[in-house]
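Before going further, learn to read the protein records used in this course. A complete example follows; check for yourself that the lines match position by position.
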Amino acid sequence: MRVHVNLDVCQGHARCEDICPEVFATDAVEGKCVILNAEVPPQWEDKARLAVRNCPEGALRVSAQ
């Protein structure tokens, strides 16, 4: 599973990082999402999906690979 971010849509709420800091972080300069692990390890897939679902702007998405 892979995660993707649309930075044009991201508003920097950082819910993704709060829910799954193993995969997501926040850029210190622009305050937007940074993906630490685009290819999500199996043990973090559930948390990463939850983070994607909780993005207020829908800036995150999941793909099979």
